[in-house]
Specification:
Layout lengths: L1 H10 L4 H5 L5 H6 L17 H10 L5 H13 L1 H27 L5 H14 L3 E5 L4 E5 L11 H11 L7 E3 L8 E3 L12 H21 L1
Antiparallel strand pairs: 1-2, 3-4
Helix pairs in contact: 1-4, 4-5, 5-6, 6-7, 6-8, 7-8
This protein binds zinc ion.
The site of zinc ion has 7 residues, from loops.
Length: about 220
């Protein structure tokens, strides 16, 4: 994605990693940006409101103009911006728990759904119906300048995935130490890895080593 390349250059942070693995929905790539999402590196990629805006812009969830307005609003009210960032991270964690439970067959906590519902209600005032060539979809009001508006694309993506038939195709990466989520859109439901280049190969190398070790004994 060209946006992420430019972004990586300008920030020098590893956000582009979230885009190497397209989860198939903005909210999945957002979950996949989470602390400890892949193993236990302990690296938080979105460390504040400015990072959140950079991430949304790199993901093409908001336009450059929208990002500019939100950055100016954050510069004027840094404390309020930090609170919105905190809400975004809380949303990411609630959504991750719900989706991970769905993918793994676990129990879904009502309080996590309630958090998503509450953020959906707050984001609704920033949503506008826009034509995408096939139908209408909810998108962020192009003139929105309130800090809260940054939540709208994330909430919209989360709710549209949760209410869509695609949820049946939600998978967690087959590498046991990776928590990345994706939609398996292959015809024969065969996608196993968040991405072959990292997890797919890691597991293959691990199996190869185990085989070689047991053959040696
Ligand atoms: Zn993975």
């Amino acid at each position: 994605m060209s946006g992420s390349t430019a972004f990586q250059r300008s920030r020098g942070k590893p956000y582009a990693e979230t885009f190497r693995c397209p989860g198939g929905a903005l909210c999945l790539d957002f979950c996949n940006s989470g602390e400890n999402a892949r193993g236990h590196s302990g690296t938080e990629w979105i460390t504040g409101f400015p990072d959140l805006i950079d991430w949304l812009e790199a993901a093409e969830a908001i336009t450059r103009d929208q990002a500019g307005r939100l950055r100016r609003a954050a510069a004027a009210s840094p404390r309020a911006a930090a609170q919105v960032w905190g809400r975004a991270i809380k949303l990411r964690e609630a959504l991750f728990r719900v989706l991970n439970a769905k993918a793994e067959g676990g129990a879904i906590a009502r309080e996590d759904l309630a958090y998503i519902e509450a953020e959906h209600a707050r984001a609704a005032s920033f949503a506008r119906l826009s034509w995408n060539g096939h139908g209408y979809r909810w998108s962020l009001d192009p003139s929105a300048a309130a800090l809260d508006a940054a939540m709208q694309p994330l909430v919209e993506s989360a709710v549209s995935l949760l209410t869509s038939a695609k949820l049946e195709r939600l998978r967690r990466c087959g590498n046991s130490t990776c928590h990345w989520l994706f939609i398996d859109e292959t015809k024969n439901h065969s996608r196993r890895w968040c991405e072959m280049a990292s997890c797919g190969n890691v597991v293959k190398v691990r199996r190869h080593r185990e085989k070689a070790r047991s053959a040696a004994h």
